[in-house]
Amino acid sequence: MNTTARSAFSILVCTLVAQPLALAGTDSRAPKALVIMLDGLRGDTIDNGLAPNLRRLADGKWQPGYNGAWTLWAGTVRDATTESSPNHVAIATGMTAAKTGIDWNPDLIARDLDEAKLPTWQTRLVRKRPGTKALFITAWKTDLNISPSHSTVKLIMDKEEECPKDLVEILAKPDAPDAIMWYCGTPDEAGHAQGYYPYSDLYLKTVPEADGWVGDVLAAIAARPTFEQEDWLIAITADHGGWERSHGQRSTACYTIPLIFAGRHVVQGRMPGVPRNYDIAPTVLTHFGVDISGIDFDGRVRGNDAPAVYSERPLSDGLAVYLPFDGDAANKGASDVAAELRGAAATIADGASGGALRVSPSADAAGSVLLKGSEQLQFENGNEFTFAAWVRVPGPQTGNPVVFANKDWRDGTNPGVAFAASQGVDMSRVYPGHYDYKKRGNHKDFMFNCGREGGKREDLGVFKPVHGQWAFYAATRGPDGVARFYQGSPDGTLYCVADDLSDIAFGTGLPFSIGQDGTGAFPDAFVGDIDEFAIWTRALDHDDVRRVFENGIR
To answer: Which of 14, 460, 501, 520 is the most buried (most CB within 10 A)?
Structure first.
């Protein structure tokens, strides 16, 4: 959200009902729900230890009998900018911009939602089950336009931290609301002020603070005298991620968000695919026993799917190419792929671990490494893979070179993949009140490109290289179609963005090359050093990627 628009602490109260039906089976307990939207929360913050209360929810360790269905790689709406308003509305209604007409912040600032046509999940409850209470609590005045027809609206000029304090007091009462929605904007304020990515000092302080507030509210729920007679569903998500000091751009840095459902009837484990934040509305209504079969939701019920499971296998399994570059370019992997140094490519002693490869000393002295025979590699299910490498660049690249690729890089829609070293983000329609990226000039950042069926492309990223320092990068596509792109920073933080790549066009018949595309004829030279380059013909799970980052392959 745009913090300049924040002006009030708001409580919205209406009368609703709860009927006992959960995600799986029936339960004699009274259903309750708490939906929390943490504005500007990147999914990788949870994995990097900044939100222990969210982590406990996801791991099914909140309270006995409660499971956690989770993903750190859910998605925002895709038919709108990655602004707050389109996603705040989508979370509340279960519908995206094509139905709501909210494409960016000014659309909601200018008008109220038509609740006759676009009721929130709370409004649907009041219509279907009159009799019990619901609460919508937010510190962003614009959110009042989401539910203008509520019978009671109370504005209290106050600070963001008063929201969880009021919730704790409210939940201590016997007649506390049955259905609660809380929008918390604190992480977003820190991101705008100092930066979401790389994590700024203020972001590193504020995310744990917001997580602590969530912990206070969860503790208040568990302390209710009637807790054992209640069937709570906790749903937590974000409206967008962030990159540098803003969001709004069409980038996986802003699309990738967490989504957690904790309840007695959800299936424990990581949810497969790429769930969306607008899955919350149909999921919560189903928990309350509302028949949603006649509602044209864009989201769907989550938390009842079989979890995404990666089999536990040694790192050596499927490791077809492993080039440590310790004085030579010998392949230590299990395949017959051979590395052929071309042009100005040479091994050096100053690596991330032992020796390394210097691809090109300058843009005028191009070098590359042809991975002979890599076009014959057999990837699991034809399109599951993992690539990993440590990369160091001296400064911005010239032109549009690649770190490695197996595609014709003249067009990003071509089949295959490319780890590009000089890419920017789509700045179209970024909210004018946000940080102006154009002040940075031309972007020279890292991105992972994939061709998609039908002549389309997917770009994961972008990540900012730290000039003169080694950083870890990995890309993987799993059996559920989810592709993830990682950056391991020198300070030990592992950043990750993701998206659905079910329709990837992976095979090209071209070999992989380092510092060059699959044709071997791309004109722009990559200038930099590469170490510990690896190709697996399978997808490593997230924990394995972190293990490679922290401990290496050897």
So the answer is: 460
- Using alpha carbons, list the distances in angstroms from residue 21 to 57, 284, 368: 21, 10, 61
Residue carrying the six token digits 């939940």: 171
Q: Please tell me the distance from the alpha carbon of residue 396 to that of residue 442, in angstroms, as a whole number.
A: 10
For 509, counting Cβ atoms within 10 Å of its Cβ (0-12 exposed, 13-18 middle, 19+ buried), the class is: exposed
Distance CA 330, CA 218 (A): 54
Nearest residue to 430 via CA among 105, 127, 173, 107: 105
Beta bridge partners of 154: 11
- Give the three-class secondary structure for 126: helix
Predicted TM-score (pTM) of the model is: 0.93
Task: Report phi then psi at 307, rounded to 5.
Answer: -70, 155
For residue 302, tell me if it sits in a domain: no
Amino acid at 218: L
Nearest CA to 408 out of 507, 320, 322 is that of: 507
Contact between 54 and 217 under an 8 Å Cβ cutoff? The reply is: no
Q: Which one, of 192, 201, 101, lies nearest residue 146 by Cα?
A: 101
Instruction: State pLDDT tens for residues 327-345.
Output: 999 999 999 999 999 999 9
Q: How many helices (H) and strands (E) does the chain have?
A: 12, 24
Predicted pLDDT of residue 4: 39
CB-count exposure of residue 519 (10 Å: 0-12, 13-18, 19+): middle
Task: Say if residue 247 is in the same domain as residue 325.
Answer: no
Expressed as residue numbers, the domain containing 419 is: 319-434+442-551
Q: Which of 287, 306, 328 is the last residue of a domain?
A: 287
Asked if residue 416 lies in contact with residue 434, where contact means CB atoms within 8 angstroms, the answer is no
Residue 531 near residue 457 (C-beta atoms within 8 A): no
* CA 191 – CA 188 distance, rounded (Å): 5
**Token pair belonging to 368:** 């590359």
Cβ atoms of 497 and 460 within 8 Å: the answer is: yes
Residue 476 within a domain? yes
The torsion angle over the Cα atoms of residues 313, 314, 320 and 323, rounded to 10 degrees, is 150
- For the chain, what is the radius of gyration of the CA atoms? 24
Cα–Cα distance, 71 to 237 (Å, whole number): 10
Whether residue 416 contacts residue 409, with contact meaning beta carbons closer than 8 Å, is answered with no
Report how far residue 172's alpha carbon sits from residue 264's, in angstroms, rounded to the nearest whole number: 21
Residues 212 and 335 in one domain: no
Contacts of 284 (CB under 8 A, 6+ apart): 33, 35, 121, 179, 233, 235
* Residue 459 three-state SS: strand
What is the tens place of the pLDDT at every residue in 496-522?
A: 999 999 999 999 999 999 999 999 999
**One domain, residues 258 and 327:** no
Q: Given this model, what pLDDT does residue 116 score? A: 78
Question: What percentage of the chain has pLDDT greater than the value 90?
Answer: 75
